[in-house]
Design goal:
Blueprint (H helix, E strand, L loop, with lengths): L2 E3 L5 H4 L2 E3 L14 E3 L24 E3 L12 E7 L8 E6 L4 E5 L9 E2 L12 E3 L8 E3 L1 E2 L6 E3 L7 E7 L2 E5 L5 E5 L3 E4 L15 H6 L58 E3 L8
Antiparallel strand pairs: 1-2, 3-4, 5-6, 5-8, 6-7, 9-16, 10-13, 10-16, 11-12, 13-14, 14-15, 15-17
């Protein structure tokens, strides 16, 4: 994937950086693998806003991704690489030898015409899904299951990868993108390779309108609001929260800097070998 810049002949083109979409080989989605997607506007079933800054945007259809890689031991051919408006990475359309079709996340190096498969006997190459017990140590993997058979939950966005570091008894030690080292059952499936579209983090929309096309509404600082709208609002002029120094916090009073929100005794603590914010030993 590449990026393209533009001559600054208009203000919106001055800082615009967009993908070239050169890896896209199929423009229309497989209709049978899509479903309608209803816009919520960030509101719950009571009609109250529970997710701010959501609304509008272009109409989209959801692409059904096979995170479980259900068809085991059957080879499939990559028919095309497509754009998915619901996620940051690209998706690949597979056609199995029995005629079925499915979408998977497209890793780096996967192209049209390649053969992929899932199962314990699959070759450890990009796009193939295997249990952690059958993947060579040191491999880059993505779409990793946390519970066998539940489907991939870890490392699914653009450019993400997990490193298989070691295996101990019934657990594999994985180094996650955050730096955390975690134990996962070796029966869990993962897909070999790094998720594609690694340049996504460098994309700049260039104008507010493009962000609105994506369904994102404007964000306003709490400091410029009124006290009725935000704890940090109010005050005469440019005030740090009502005339006095106010600790940064969310609209609902949750401290925003330095306050730990994770429970002290979380059930998954026993699977974490090293936390992502562990101090490095000099």
């Amino acid at each position: 994937m590449g990026l393209k810049t533009f001559r600054p002949i208009t203000p919106s083109m001055r800082f615009k950086v967009l993908p070239t979409f050169e890896e896209i080989t199929k423009t229309k989605p497989e209709r049978s693998l899509t479903e309608s997607k209803k816009k919520s506007g960030g509101r719950n079933h009571h009609g109250r806003i529970t997710c701010r800054h959501v609304g509008g945007g272009h109409k989209q259809r959801y692409r059904i991704i096979d995170f479980k890689r259900k068809k085991r031991g059957i080879e499939a051919e990559v028919v095309g690489i497509e754009y998915d408006p619901n996620r940051t990475c690209r998706i690949a359309l597979l056609k199995y030898t029995d005629g079925d079709k499915a979408y998977i996340l497209a890793p780096i190096g996967l192209s049209t015409g390649d053969k992929v498969s899932a199962g314990e006997g699959a070759e450890p190459k990009p796009g193939n899904a295997l249990p952690l017990s059958a993947i060579p140590l040191g491999s880059s993997i993505h779409n990793v299951e946390l519970i066998p058979g539940k489907g991939g939950q870890i490392a699914r966005s653009a450019g993400q990868q997990v490193i298989l570091m070691n295996r101990e008894a019934e657990f594999a030690l994985l180094k996650l993108p955050s730096g955390e080292i975690r134990k996962v059952n070796v029966a869990c499936y993962a897909t070999v390779g790094q998720v594609g579209n690694i340049e996504h983090m460098n994309v700049q929309s260039g104008k507010a309108g493009r962000t609105r096309w994506q369904g994102v509404r404007p964000t306003v600082r709490g400091m410029v609001m009124n006290p009725v709208d935000h704890p940090m609002g109010g005050g005469q002029g440019k005030s740090k929260g009502g005339g006095g120094r106010h600790h940064p916090m969310s609209p609902w009073g949750q401290l925003a800097k330095g306050f730990k929100t994770r429970r002290k005794h979380h059930p998954s603590d026993r699977f974490i070998v090293q936390r992502r914010n562990a101090k490095k030993v000099k």
